[in-house]
């Protein structure tokens, strides 16, 4: 049994705003009785899966009268990036890579010096 909470837009159309897959679980449930749950939502057996549509976002709706679900798909806004913003990001990434490369090179030199010191402490013995 699943619990769906919705905001009614009319007597036959409601936008689903919350879903709980195990509302009566003693630990992770809603800590409400069935009667209390039905005041703010509906108990259902199954919720259909949304289909994947490129560039679209799925919004689940529910008909409180017929107890049927459906999805409506809306365009996802595309964020436009200017050339100057892209150039800035690329320059920042280049600087970060250069810094990382320098740090790795420095660590490599430190390791070589430490190996030399270890060999010297051993008296040149392997």
Structure characterization notes:
With 126 residues, the protein is of the alpha+beta class. It contains 2 helices and 5 strands. It folds into 2 domains: 2-75, no CATH class; 79-126. The protein has helices at 34-40, 83-122; strands at 2-10, 13-20, 41-44, 56-63, 68-75. A 5-stranded antiparallel β-sheet has the order 3-1-2-4-5. A hairpin with a 2-residue loop joins strand 1 (2-10) and strand 2. It is elongated, with a radius of gyration of 30 Å.
Give the gist of this structure:
The longest helix has 40 residues, at 83-122. The chain has helices at residues 34-40, 83-122, and strands spanning 2-10, 13-20, 41-44, 56-63, 68-75.
For the largest beta-sheet, the strand count, sense and barrel status come to: 5 strands, antiparallel
Mean pLDDT: 91
Q: What share of the residues lie within helices?
A: 25-40%
Number of strands: 5
Principal-axes geometry comes out as elongated
Order of neighbouring strands in the sheet with most strands: 3-1-2-4-5
What is the string of helix and strand elements?
EEHEEEH
- Oligomer classification: single chain
Radius of gyration: 30 Å
> Beta-sheet strand percentage?
25-35%
Low-pLDDT stretches are none
Give the count of helical stretches.
2
Instruction: State the end-to-end CA separation.
Output: 70 Å
Write out key terms for the chains shown:
2 domains; 5-stranded antiparallel β-sheet; 29% strand; 126 residues; alpha+beta; 2 helices
Q: How is the topology of this model organized?
A:
Elements (H helix, E strand, L loop, with lengths): L1 E9 L2 E8 L13 H7 E4 L11 E8 L4 E8 L7 H40 L4
Antiparallel strand pairs: 1-2, 1-3, 2-4, 4-5
């Amino acid at each position: 049994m699943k619990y769906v909470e919705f905001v009614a837009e009319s007597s036959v159309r409601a936008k689903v705003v919350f879903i709980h897959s195990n509302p009566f679980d003693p630990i992770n449930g809603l800590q409400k009785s069935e009667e209390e749950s039905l005041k703010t939502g509906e108990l259902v057996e199954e919720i259909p899966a949304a289909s994947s549509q490129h560039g679209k976002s799925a919004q689940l709706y529910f008909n409180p009268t017929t107890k049927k679900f459906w999805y409506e798909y809306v365009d996802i806004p595309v964020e436009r990036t200017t050339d100057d913003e892209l150039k800035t990001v690329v320059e920042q990434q280049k600087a970060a890579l250069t810094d990382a490369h320098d740090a790795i090179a420095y660590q490599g030199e430190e390791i070589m010096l430490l190996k030399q010191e270890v060999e010297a402490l051993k008296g040149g013995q392997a």
